[in-house]
Design goal:
Sec_Metab_Biosynth-Assoc (chains A, B); mainly beta; Thioesterase family protein (chains A, B); globular; Porin; 2 domains; Acyl-CoA_hotdog (chains A, B); about 10% helix; homodimer; two-stranded antiparallel sheet
């Protein structure tokens, strides 16, 4: 089989190459943020979270983000960036660390883009017991869902759309036809376009990959994330993920957006919440 | 009216005195963590979050925590502590900062207890528009709810119980009688015992004041918080608060616990989520 036909795997995929870090000194990494993971010129917030999480995974004594909280300071652009990561505490089960991503002004001064705190553990070491009342919402089959390029007005094609498989539940894309449901919901099948299976890092991409829930409330505009916290709850099984996002409370121009990610074995593998701001256009 | 009969007010109450900081130098504050806010010998996590939030409020250009994420590193004990707070970024609408609380080993070395990242704004400046589908769950009248000392086994009286008004929905305290509902829910009326009204700082106390939701799932033990993120969404109206906490997913010994806080005008004033760990006894 020619190499180009080999399916992408964890460790050998475009997502892995796009998040790869060059170690400069202990805890300091370089990366050239690629154009390919942008939306309207800015790097996707979930992609950036994965970059920071990868730096922490290389720095801390434990491999997987159990909980990671990111505060977004300014929009990241394609080009060179530096990630600094440090251990705050190393415990037997969990390690806690901090990381920041910086870019450069024309005069060479550093600007901090994102700062994160995270506690890492080893998901593979956890006992199998699950006691959950959480159930995935109903999703139509993937083949009945629609991609960004299926929607009217898809002249707005974004580079990231070539790199993720995002197939939206038609019930939550009425806004693209001027008929938002008003519920503040978005649901989609999610994967990486090259077929790479999910892992904890790609789950961080999944939680911030869907159209803003406020579109489903009939609001248009830019909805920048102020802060996003994700809990990775289990190693995801192979196969496409289902992501459900909801907003219950939009008040004073701010809203929460909750995401849940379900794997192919119906396991709740990630939960996230972000505080975002509506900049109406 | 004698001074002892005057109702406590924001700025003049036991909670305000217990969170008061002594400035040592810019961004560095001293505090003597009081015995009165402990539970089983450790300072309450919500109280500590309020201390750190107060330090950030004195350091940052904006007054109120819109979103604050705390990673708990080690248990805080009554006694001297130092809080260090710094500004990361000052914007027009929001400022972002970081703070840590430290205590001391016998040999004088510092141990970090908690680290937080937070974005602050001015809740009083937000427009009044609210579009919410969130509704408070049904709460019995306060007079029909039960306090920690009404429960059997109240020999476990904790100092913090004298400082907060906590009246639990009887439907969520079956665990105290050996009859947990299994739902993973806890609901309570909440206030400060001396009658001080709620403010953004006391909302941080409210989100971590109820018995662990896992008690309602029939699990006993210590449930330490790994990380807690709270969003303060509005200035609370005077009067007691209603706090509802839920856990949907307990897996591999870890769980999320979500809290919602409602004010007397039925407004959703705070949302929080924590990742906690069950240490079964």
């Amino acid at each position: 089989m020619p190499e180009t036909a080999a399916p992408a795997t964890v460790g050998n995929s475009e997502f892995d190459r796009a998040t790869a870090l060059t170690p400069h000194e202990p805890g300091v990494y370089g990366i050239d943020l690629p154009e390919g993971w942008t939306i309207f010129g800015a790097l996707n917030g979930g992609y950036l979270l994965a970059v920071l999480a990868r730096a922490l995974g290389e720095t801390l004594a434990h491999p997987h983000p159990f909980t990671i909280s990111a505060h977004y300071l300014s929009a990241s652009r394609p080009g060179p960036a530096t990630v600094r990561a440090e251990t705050i505490r190393t415990g037997r089960t969990l390690s806690t660390g901090q990381a920041s991503l910086f870019q450069y002004e024309a005069d060479g001064t550093e600007t901090e883009r994102i700062r994160v705190l995270a506690s890492y553990g080893d998901l593979a070491s956890l006992p199998d017991d699950v006691r959950t009342t959480a159930k995935p919402p109903a999703f139509p089959p993937l083949a009945h869902c629609v991609g960004p390029d299926d929607a009217p007005g898809s002249a707005d094609h974004q580079p990231i759309a070539d790199r993720v498989l995002l197939k939206l539940d038609p019930a939550t894309v009425g806004w693209a036809l001027g008929q938002p449901s008003g519920k503040g919901e978005s649901r989609a099948w999610f994967g990486l376009a090259d077929g790479r299976d999910a892992d904890p890092l790609s789950l961080l991409l999944a939680v911030d990959a869907l159209p803003p829930t406020v579109f489903d409330m009939g609001i248009k505009g830019w909805v920048p994330t102020i802060e996003l916290t994700a809990h990775i709850r289990a190693l995801p099984a192979p196969g496409p993920l289902r992501v459900s996002t909801t907003t219950r409370n939009l008040a004073g121009g701010f809203l929460e957006e909750d995401a849940e990610v379900w794997d192919s074995e119906n396991r709740l593998v990630a939960q996230s919440r972000q505080l975002a701001r509506v900049m109406q256009s």
